[in-house]
Amino acid sequence: MDESQLDATFAALADATRRAILAKLAHGEVTVNELAQPFDMSLPAISKHLKVLERAGLISRGRNGQFRPCRLEADGLDVATDWIEHNRQIWTDRFDKLSAHLRELQKTPSTKGTPS
Amino acid sequence: MTATATPEDLGEVTVVRVFDAPRELVYACMTDPKHLTHFWGPTGVSTPIENITLDLRIGGVFETVMVNDATGDEYPSKGVFTEIAPPSVLAWEEPSGMANRSTFVDLGDGRTEVTIHQTNVPAMFRAPEARAGFNSSLDRFAAYLATQVG
Questions:
Q1: Residue A40: which region, alpha, beta or left (left: phi > 0; alpha: psi -120 to 50)?
Q2: pTM, whole model, 2 decimals?
Q3: Residues B88-120, buried b or exposed e (16+ Cβ, 10 A)?
Q4: CB contacts, 8 Å: A17 with chain B
Q5: pLDDT tens digit string along A43-59?
Q6: Which one of A19, A24, A30 makes the best mutation probe of the B interface by having the most chain B beta carbons within 10 Å?
Q7: Which of A22, A74, A98 shows the shortest C-beta gap to B124?
């Protein structure tokens, strides 16, 4: 899997609503209407999330019928198993940056405030 | 400076880091948008200060929208503070139920150890059984999840 696909997948998984949608789809095919209900979201809002998930290869949508049921894509989800590692990486990155920020802060005279 | 990742239990992620700074300052950095904007986005991702909403009280919101530097894609996240005890504990919960609890320990030599402990990590992302499901058949994964999700 190339880097851009990985980015798309992780970007898709970075959103809590989209993770919840995937969890719901794990039970089987669901239509957009059925998805929108529990999330208390408009159909366009849900559709936007589904497009991101589809682009990331995490779901596919039926071509037949007006409801275009959504289902999980097992291949795309292989990457999702790495979510925990990705999540850990986010915090590792944050802490790297926080370390650098703290060094800057402690170099700066307190009257000057936060460097930007 | 050290970075340690401890093995996680089912549904839990722990990240530990020691910072060369006093505890009050580290705590301030984690709770003030003017500091968070410097480090909240991981590599290649920024979090402009206007994208950070932080209402530091129990039940107050903690919302961020991270922006991908290359593509402009936005990654919103939302939480509600559940525990605020400066300068030692800060916790928030996401709508998915995932909880983030940070503890700040004064090491007594000017350094501070921060531990981020995440619990209730969504079932589909966490278990070896789920991984097996991802890797083999979707049916198996769905069957596993059916036992985990109400």
A1: left
A2: 0.61
A3: eebbbbbeeebbbbbbbeeeeeebbbbebbbbe
A4: 95
A5: 888 889 999 999 888 89
A6: A19
A7: A22
